[in-house]
Design goal:
The complex is a heterodimer. Chain A contains eleven helices and 13 strands. By secondary structure, chain A is α/β, with parallel strands linked by helices. In chain A, strands 6-7-8-3-9-10-13-12 form an eight-stranded mixed beta sheet, sandwiched between helices. In chain A, strands 2-1-4-5 form a four-stranded antiparallel beta sheet. Helix content of chain B is about 30%, strand content about 25%. Chain B contains 13 helices and 15 strands. Chain B has an eight-stranded mixed beta sheet, sandwiched between helices. In chain B, strands 3-2-5-6 form a four-stranded antiparallel beta sheet. In chain B, strands 14-15 form a two-stranded antiparallel ribbon. The radius of gyration of chain B is 21 Å and the shape is globular. The chains are: A alpha/beta, B alpha/beta. At the A-B interface, helix 6, helix 7, helix 8, helix 9 and helix 10 of A face strand 1, helix 9, helix 10, helix 11 and helix 12 of B.
Chain lengths: ~350, ~375
């Protein structure tokens, strides 16, 4: 393990242009294929290419937004990065440690430094455990605190996320969706992590509650120096919360840029279509918008098209697009895109 | 004229939807000129008897839907927006549901007093429904063609053969490629967007006067949502059907609706033309919702969240149901429930506080 290798930037991302600083996490050529088994002998007949070769860096202290539609592989990227499921190919380097080649016991030692907040606050909290034991579990697993110290820490965590510490002995069902998501956040920050994967943390919440949770995440980031990977399909919220944004389509990242660059001058036709499809809560703006409407649906990741993954729906596709895979290239400082025609 | 009373479209190209990948949007003019009510709802109250007590889901809702109008209904989960619209056609499970009071006038008759077989003629015939999740609302063991023709055979006197042809036209109309082939498909063979198109085709089948769409795009991805919205807009201009569009997404209604109802705690708290609502929201809840939304077209300031949680609906409201979360609440709000009153032409609000003048709306 070379601790200083954390500072090396990789070819895939620009150094210093957008977010000067140290690379905390580096993903190189990451692939995750799930086998499709069939028949009596469960022979593998194909594979779902959920993630098909993505590379990016995450800098310390930033929020990288990862957007895409359902089935684009964005959640799988988050899960593979934390080694919740093994990668098929490629490497994930966290602060100098190459997670993909470490034995499980050593990954476990790094676990306190990288955590996850899940989408569904109903399914991700054990209904038979009290809030205190849910938040206390990581403390018990990774630290050797005395019982009273642990209880103090739990109380502290509850008040940090805006819950009443006297409610520690209640069960998840006694809380509303927004409060449950706060419990999930408290569990994630319990061990003072450096990095948190937020996998659609607000998708299951009501509009008026979403802002509460997002404001909490932003406040914690400032107070605790957290680095986020914020996975979401809500582009408006990503625009609000992220420093840089990566757009995924069919297992590939098609564009990566700073948040303003990406939303103000998107280069990839998919990003352009995605941006124009998001409704804006303003009737005056809506009335004058020009909309790019994509035809059809996203192809199946079990049978992706040849060449550019987007060529089947792309409004500017040419024969070349179905033959040649576009190069992942930097067109301006820190603005990366995979399209033959982007400039 | 075709079987659904609309000009027949011979040109294949005009059926193909969208015609080109770039669609310029015509400004959504406010079409309230005719102002002929298609549906008039007065003092609707729906309750559910549960083990834990009576849930007051809809507490005295009154509104009018004009002919050809696009009415957006906005609210969060538990605001009563879906139960209100389901109650209009008694589509709520009864028991435990109960419609305590109210009238729903449609075509000169009160739907709530109709016998079930009379009501069935209205459901799916004169009033069409589009539900949120097309996977659970389509029958998995019938082909989509059969599900469209079923509605046609029930509500019109078409033969099977005529209905089959009509079903194919409908699928073309909602932009499904290979419509003839798709008639034989089962719902699980279609993608989410395609299934929702089938739902729209079923709703349109009997050329209804009103379509009620309950969160029709919530389960879909944004690019597919954009496709569905364009289809609905185009079809509405072509058929002149009035639409009630239930959603929690203030962005979607901004571009679609003529008028918007905002619901909270089983009541309408604000009702306005779409531009007035977004430009001059009068209810603190509406204001809070708009401020808590991030916008894609601008780098916003900090999001202002509405603190607290929605109220439980176990007791009928005796005070303003938003008062516990309202930063303007004063003593009257906890004593008396506000009623919907007109503060400007076509703009009604149920609030004791005037946020513009920063004083109570009425001297008490």
């Amino acid at each position: 393990m070379l601790p200083d290798s954390a500072a090396t930037t990789t070819a895939a991302t620009a150094k210093g242009e957008v977010q000067p600083g140290q690379v905390l996490l580096s993903v190189q050529g990451l692939k995750k294929h799930f086998p499709i088994m069939k028949g009596v002998f469960r022979r593998q007949v194909g594979s779902v290419r959920a993630v098909d070769g993505v590379s990016f860096d995450i800098y310390r202290g930033e929020t990288l937004g990862l957007v895409g539609e359902s089935g684009s592989g964005k959640s799988t990227v988050g899960r593979v990065m934390l080694q919740l499921t093994p990668a098929t190919e490629g490497t994930v380097t966290f602060d100098g440690h190459e997670l993909t080649s470490l034995p499980a016991s050593e990954v476990r030692e790094l676990r306190p430094r990288m955590q996850m907040v899940f989408q569904d606050p109903h399914a991700s909290l054990n209904p038979r455990m009290t809030v205190a034991s849910i938040i206390g579990e990581p403390l018990k697993e990774h630290l050797s605190l005395s019982r009273s110290d642990r209880d103090l820490r739990i109380e502290e965590l509850l008040s940090v996320v805006g819950l009443d510490p006297t409610h520690a002995n209640r069960y998840p069902h006694e809380f509303s969706g927004g409060q449950r998501q706060r419990i999930g956040v408290a569990r994630a920050i319990a061990l003072n992590p450096d990095f948190i994967v937020c996998d659609e943390p607000i998708a299951a919440l009501d509009v008026s509650i979403q802002a509460q949770v997002v404001n909490l995440l932003l406040k914690l980031q400032k107070d605790l120096d957290l680095t986020y990977l914020f996975i979401s399909h809500d582009l408006s919220m990503v625009r609000h919360i992220a420093d840089r944004v990566a757009v995924m389509y069919l297992g590939n990242i098609v564009e990566l840029a700073s948040v303003d660059d990406l939303f103000e001058s998107p280069k990839h036709p998919y990003t352009q279509a995605l941006r124009s499809a998001v409704p804006v809560p303003d009737p005056v703006v809506e009335a004058s918008r020009v909309r790019v409407i994509l035809e059809g649906d996203m192809p199946s990741p079990a049978n992706p098209p040849s060449g550019c993954p987007f060529n089947t729906r792309c409004p500017i596709a040419e024969p070349r697009c179905s033959e040649e895979e576009p190069e992942w290239r930097e067109i301006t400082g820190g603005h990366w895109v995979a399209c033959h025609f982007a400039e | 004229m075709s079987w659904w009373g609309q000009p027949t479209i011979d040109d294949e190209e005009s059926l193909r939807y969208p015609p080109a990948h770039v669609q310029s949007r015509r400004p959504s003019g406010i079409r309230l000129s005719q102002n002929k009510p298609a549906l008039e709802v007065t003092d609707l109250k729906t309750v559910f008897d549960t083990q834990d007590g009576v849930v007051h889901a809809v507490n005295g809702v009154s509104f009018t839907l004009n002919e050809g109008e696009f009415l957006g209904v906005v609210g969060e989960s538990g605001s009563g927006k879906s139960v209100t619209m389901m109650s209009l056609l008694k589509l709520i499970p009864m028991p435990p549901g109960r419609i305590d009071s109210g009238t729903v006038f449609f075509g000169g008759q009160d739907l709530l007093t109709l016998e079930l077989d009379e009501l069935r003629k209205v459901r799916g015939g004169q009033i069409g429904f589009i539900f949120q999740d097309p996977m659970t609302s389509l029958n998995p063991v019938l082909t989509v063609g059969r599900q469209i023709t079923e509605s046609l055979e029930l509500h019109t006197d078409q033969t099977r053969r005529e209905a089959d042809a009509a079903a194919e036209d409908l699928l073309k109309l909602v932009g499904i490629p290979d419509a003839g082939q798709r008639l034989k498909s089962y719902p699980h063979e279609l993608s989410g967007g395609m299934r929702q198109r089938v739902m729209i085709a079923i709703a349109l089948a009997c050329s209804p006067k009103v379509i009620i769409a309950d969160e029709p795009t919530t389960a879909l991805d944004v690019t597919i949502q954009a496709q569905i919205i364009e289809i609905v807009k185009e079809l509405r201009e072509r058929t002149g059907t009035a639409v009630i569009w239930i959603t929690h997404d203030l962005g979607v209604v901004a571009g679609l609706a003529d008028r918007v109802l905002v619901m909270y705690g089983g009541q309408i708290v604000e009702e306005a033309r779409v531009r007035d609502l977004y430009a001059r929201p009068a209810h603190p809840y509406t204001q809070g919702l708009l401020k808590s939304l991030p916008r894609l077209d601008q780098k916003g300031a900090e999001l202002q969240s509405i603190e607290g949680q929605p109220l439980s609906l176990y007791a009928p409201p005796t005070s303003c149901s938003f008062a516990p979360r309202c930063k303007f609440a004063f003593d009257r709000c906890s004593e008396e429930a506000p009623v919907l009153e007109e503060i400007a032409p076509d703009h009604k609000v149920a609030c004791w506080w005037n946020t513009e003048t920063e004083e109570p709306r009425h001297a008490s």
